[in-house]
């Protein structure tokens, strides 16, 4: 199979799966923000912008929506009051847990169709690709 086609097919399938599990009141970008903030802990918008590969303007709009829905809270950076740290509220954590439970079905399918060796190889290859994609975005921004 052609690598380019395989990557496009996988991306399309993952988007379709994501459509099934993400709540309708948040966008994909907002979910990604919640996921990253949960993963990293308190996060600065400048860091989120780089990690997610979006403009500060687009990120700011998404953060404003998440804040109005009560999923995040923001507080000033002690060393630079112009920038706000973002963290999840209890409601934001609860929403992520709910979405995570829905993602479990994708995990069960992977367990069913991949052997243990294939699972390990998929994890290894996915981490290589994800880490290098992230590094490319970060290096491009610097």
UniProtKB/TrEMBL annotation:
Pfam families: MarR_2 (PF12802). SMART domains: HTH_MARR. One of its GO terms (molecular function) is DNA-binding transcription factor activity. Residues 1-131 form the HTH marR-type domain. InterPro entries: HTH_MarR-typ, WH-like_DNA-bd_sf, WH_DNA-bd_sf. Keywords: DNA-binding, Transcription, Transcription regulation. The keyword Transmembrane does not apply. PANTHER family: TRANSCRIPTIONAL REGULATOR, MARR, TRANSCRIPTIONAL REPRESSOR OF EMRAB OPERON. This is MarR family transcriptional regulator. It comes from Anaerococcus porci.
